[in-house]
Amino acid sequence: MFQDKSVVVVMPAYNAARTLRQTYDEVMAQGIVDLVIVVDDASRDETTEVARSLPRTRVHTHPRNLGYGGNQKTCYKLALEAQADIVIMVHPDYQYTPKLIPAMASLIGQGLYSCVLGSRILGGSALKGGMPIWRYVSNRFLTLTENILTGAKLSEYHTGYRAFSRDLLEQLPVEANSDDFVFDNQMLAQILWLGHGIGEVSCPTRYFSEASSINFWRSVKYGFGCLNTALKFRLAKIGLVRCRLFPSKK
Fold it and tell me: How far, in Å, CA of 222 to CA of 220, rounded?
């Protein structure tokens, strides 16, 4: 709990058996997490078995692979059903340190932000942590373009370390989003569309063989998806298009 608010960590998992327990142990060591929800997206390893051995963990296994975005849709649905007040997504590959959970929960719980991101760019930790230079350059280009089109000033849109308030998750039309990796980007655009501020904390990160990462060509597809999302945001904002991602405000 954080100030009488329930804190739930969701882990969208795929072939994460080798790093899941280590990530879980550090999550629970923060002392404020009430429940961990692991959604296994039809892994080919023992992810589900490892998850079921962990205390205070709810496990859901997809019978077929739904994709990263499809996995998150299930994560947030289950977190809301569990009466979570603060929901924090932590990837179970141990790429992002769970030690930031108290800071992120505090920013949500104190009512300062409805969404908080763990940014790899703030503090210059991305390259130090081993982010490939091509990925860093494309991150900076996409972020600049997206900030111009959305009018925001985020340091990055592409981190997978995120915290949300219950109220915000209940407002977002996440079912309209892609089931692929661009889901993350669409979700942030929707938050900005609804007029919510997004907080950021500096997050050291690690790149190693067990950490999940999409390949170059899927990264290219993701990049074009991000640009498409930002362009739709701008066109919807000025009233030139209607888009399921950005429904008309009542």
Answer: 5
Residue 244 lies in a domain: no
Residues in the chain, total: 250
Backbone Cα Rg of the chain: 17
Domain for residue 16, yes or no? yes
Write out pLDDT tens, residues 16-51.
999 999 999 999 999 999 999 999 999 999 999 999
**Residue ranges of E strands in the chain:** 7-13, 35-40, 57-61, 86-89, 115-119, 162-165, 198-202
DSSP state for residue 118 in the 8-state scheme: E
Per the structure, the complete domain to which residue 30 belongs is given by: 7-237
How many structural domains compose the chain? Answer: 1
Which pTM was predicted?
A: 0.94
Alpha carbons 34 and 70: distance in angstroms, whole number: 24
151 within some domain: yes
Residue type, 75: C
Q: Does 194 map to a domain?
A: yes
